[in-house]
Sequence to fold (473 residues):
Amino acid sequence: MITPRFSCSQTDKSIIISIYCPSVRASDVEINVDETLFSVHINPYFLRLNFPHPVVEDDASSAVYDPSTGYLTVTLTKEVPGQEFKDLDLLAKLLAPRPSKTAPAQPVIEVLDSQDAAVDDAGDELAARTQELSLEQREILEAAENDWQLPQTVPEPLPPLETSVERRYGFLDMHSGYFRHVEHTENEVNELGADAEACPPHERRLRRLRHEEQKWDEDHYMADYADDEYIQELIAWPNPHLTSSDAFQYTEEENLTMLRLPRKEYLATPEQTHNLHLTLLTLLFAYAYETRTTQHDPTPESAWTISSLTPAFSALDPPPYGQPSSNPSEFTEIELADTFTASYRRSLSFPLYRSFALAEACRADVAALLARGKRVVTRCLLEMKNILDHHDVYYVYSKIWVDDFCVWTLAYASDDVLAELANAVGGLRMNKGIIGWDLEELEALTREDAERSPDSDDESEDEIERMLPASLP
Fold:
């Protein structure tokens, strides 16, 4: 079945769905309304939308087909007049399946009152003597009271049985099989080689870090630090997504792309949702770097740049990179620093322009994009998807990461959480020392060399003058 192009709007009492389905017979239209779920079938088109609030099909509802334009316009009545239906412009969210009904809350025990049991003097003396016993003596005492059965503990559970050598990866570890023949492709960013399908997560991280150390070039970094005129131009470049004051509206091309996104329901745990937000930071950092260095004009190298700068792409190694947060609803400064450290290291090891100041500008872009909300973030992801989809090899990273991120951001991400994350990222202080490559020492050596260079040039000119023959009288 074909998903048609559509748009939704609302009045105070109604929801209007405009569906483009040319060359069909109006008598074949089948419409079904079930609370928040709306579906329409007219061969060969099928559309199912899940609204945030219930709608009803009553006498005020209507369906009108205009054969001259090919548009079917369906008007449904809001169950609660005046209720606002938010996010009607987020087509991927409307197309997402209806969320599963949550399980009923587990029964809990509430302590209303408590009191200490009365004990006699002999009991007090026994309790005091028991407190003075060592751990071993108390265990023996307990064993004597329980027919000499010594206390036992349940052994640690064995690791899960692996029935296949393949390891899952990608968004929520949902994917596998995309790299079975990677050795026969020209995938220059794959850091796992032919072992990509079987490499366990801890090995992926070790290989990524080892590859970053191999690609790190002190001379390249010092050269870019000494001659940074063009890099300063890139840093000063204004990002149009952050400077535009126009009302936000997706383009027709973006709407068509969202219609082709997968229709999935993501049952992520709070910990997984937390980690997805961290992974989103690395994707936006790679996007920000590519956008700044090309000034929003992608080149044939753009797909390579994005894939190289994203650890979840090149090494299938998403965050967290340090100690995970104990509270999934909070983003600590340490874990944010660990996340951006991975992105900074890659921006200083792989691409053409290697500058800590440029990396800082990209982090500021990430914070500003998050502050604009999930619509702008989704637009950035759609642009990233478009770049990857047009590459013969790197399109695979769009399939295992970006497609799902687009759907998840539209349907599940919260503007409030993104705003909170934006504030945390914007206020983060990245110390050069945590990168691990003595950046401050290298910069100091570069400055010292620059201060000595003018004197050396003057001495060279004096030597040349002394070597020239004396002028004739």
